Amino acid sequence: MRGKARRVWLAGCSAWPQKNRVSDPDYIPSSIARARNIADLRHMARERLPRMVFDYIDGGADDEMTLERNVSRFRDIELVWDALANVSDIDTSATIMGAPSASPFFISPTATSRLFHPRAGELAVARAAHSAGVPYACSTLASTSVEDIAAANPGTKWFQVYVWRDRALVTEMLARAKAAGFSAILLTVDVPVAGNRERDSANDFTIPPRVTWRTGAQALAAPHYLWDLMTTPEIRPANFAHMKIDGGLIGFINAQFDRTVTWQDARWLRDSWDGKLAIKGIATPEDAQRCVSIGADAVWVSNHGGRQLDTAPATIDTLPRIAEAVAGAAEIILDGGVRRGSDIVKALALGANAVAIGRAYLYGLAAGGERGVRRAIDILDGELRRTMALCGRTRLSGLTRDLIFRRTLS
Ligand SMILES: Cc1cc2nc3c(=O)[nH]c(=O)nc-3n(C[C@H](O)[C@H](O)[C@H](O)COP(=O)(O)O)c2cc1C
Question: What is the tens place of the pLDDT at every residue in 134-157?
């Protein structure tokens, strides 16, 4: 190629990534607005991301049975409705761990969100949550610091923690979260060791990514993503930027994950934090009662989205007995497999006070940054409202077990 044709081609190449820049506040990918449901956003995320990054979001542990079950068990539940109920005024407003929320769901913590959109990352998610009026939960392994997230989101923010080997580091993080305005902490208890995610090893995927022929080829096939990755700061655990971290995120996890952690440490955390506390990753009524006995404000029914113990039951299956055991002594949060507003109705009808969403917003983030996350939230909120109207119930308190037609759950 020579002369004018080459100049036109080069100009096109340099303009191309900018045309799609989500950081441009006026730029709205029309495809995002056209996404009808979370499945559409997932499809768009798959198109935009290198395969290894898509698989990191989308995948689960081992044979991915729990990942699949979390979704499919919602589908097994049938809803019935009250006919001829006046549904002209639907109200989805909720209070979750003492905070007002426009809807009974919120953003679940996910590590290194800049991986899924290097330019937008956590800031985009935090802004979208704030503009939609739902709480934002930040992962301890976020790729943006708690201070920067707080500057982007003056609304309700919660901070997810692990009990690190270095307890002083935990105390330091609690103080930083408090100073930045985070009103609750969420202790994740389903990661005594990392789950076995075989899609990651098949893709040679690590954080930060290593360059191999496989990762290189996948990245070249996603030029917008690669452009963003190359023109933004390195993706790392930003809350620990002041520490020397060898071996990237995995090195940090290996150095800090403490396999000796027990309920005594959870109690220590309770005593170290004077705000709200949720315990995330509960699968049995007995552990739910332990949460209550150490003074947790919320029991969070979760299996980490099927990323930890494979063959664990779907969260919607473990929820009813846990709710029964807790009997109102703490709030119940559920996550795992929520992809439709009707899933939220089912979770509330079976005993949850609120629902957390993970992949549903990550697909939106990957597909279109802040607007993609907002679209995911709006889709779920719209579906929730429509399902409530179709069920003849106008208030969240009206989402009760009698809406469930046939309980195939144990
Ligand atoms: C890519 C990814 C990263 C995650 N990172 C964290 C994390 O750092 N801390 C945590 O407690 N949970 C983490 N989770 C689990 C979510 O908070 C949530 O429990 C799970 O995604 C819910 O399932 P769902 O994706 O089917 O909605 C992560 C999930 C995904 C998909």
Answer: 999 999 999 999 999 999 999 999
